């Protein structure tokens, strides 16, 4: 099954890959390694804002992280000239969680992205990962995630 068919089966529509908001590029390819810049939590209604531990719960944070993962896949698709089946492996995700000083469930939040990658890609979605706290994120978003991917 192709990745696009699997996404359709799951009811996931990839958005257009977001343009950079500052002086950077959305991705850099080095051989078969693709580095994708941080994708902030957003959906069709706009930015997903919030602070975990202060009005936003883990479930909402995980949903925001899932949206970041969808945006990461959109960037991979753009980097692969529209052919998402060139994606071989998710190598590493780094997740930043806008959270209070006493919030300690960053891994549960970033599971929203990790679970999506495995749900869509199976074993090729399994990856190394970091999940860290941040006192704030750009535009007040709840989550930002960057990624490293192996492509062909």
TrEMBL record:
Identify the residues that the record assigns to the Endoribonuclease L-PSP/chorismate mutase-like domain, covering every copy: 4-140
Which Gene3D superfamilies did the record assign?
Answer: RutC-like (3.30.1330.40)
Pfam families hit by this protein: YjgF_endoribonc
Query: Which protein are we looking at?
Result: Enamine deaminase RidA, house cleaning of reactive enamine intermediates, YjgF/YER057c/UK114 family
Q: Which organism is it from?
A: Pontibaca methylaminivorans
